[in-house]
């Protein structure tokens, strides 16, 4: 009868379910007991910027620009960067990177004490005018290229006019929003070498980075091999300090915009974007230029 058939079918389903659960429990227990490599997700995310033509262009340009700087300018920039990467500490006794930068500047016998003091004040943000503002500008180009600019200016209207002129020259436009949402902010720490002169081992640096909040590491194979660690924006200082304490030379650290979906563009258009980025980076009030190009 239908009632009997229903009872038999229901009994079969119940028994079958118990059998499945009984069979799955040991397997689940084994999986939970198996040791897990908590660093595997970071190891698997290691990327190589050296494989990207665009990244090579930008890093090689940065190296050439650094070479062009005068001896005085170079050491002043290093001192300012040391103060910033040291959390704003202006005391060489507490900021080892600053102490090293000052020592290097004095060794040249070209950089004066006045230059050093001014660089320290600028690095700590003590010499900025009262109407100084930090702003973000957004630019849209052809082929889906997006740019985010970090700007520090005390002449807002003047800077706005200059930026419009640059955009007109390079046939792009200033956006009124919607671009920055295509990026995410990440802390970054760029390591260039070891203090003892040893070879930079990305795997060894990664071990240190993982313990102090590194989420991703990018190996940059340009003229100088470097490693760039990405982390939460609030963790870059502690990560920088940890890497420095373990004998790594921190070339730069801070917060930057990373594209949520990096894009590739035609080779010929890279030159167009590159020329725009060059002019933007040369502007004294533009601190950083971020693009969504892979």
TrEMBL record:
Domain spans labelled TACO1/YebC-like second and third: 133-293
Record GO cellular component, one term: mitochondrion
Keyword RNA-binding: no
Subcellular location as annotated: Mitochondrion
Main location: mitochondrion
Signal peptide, first to last residue: none
Keywords: DNA-binding
Protein name per its UniProtKB record: Putative dna-binding regulatory protein
Organism lineage string: Eukaryota, Metazoa, Ecdysozoa, Arthropoda, Chelicerata
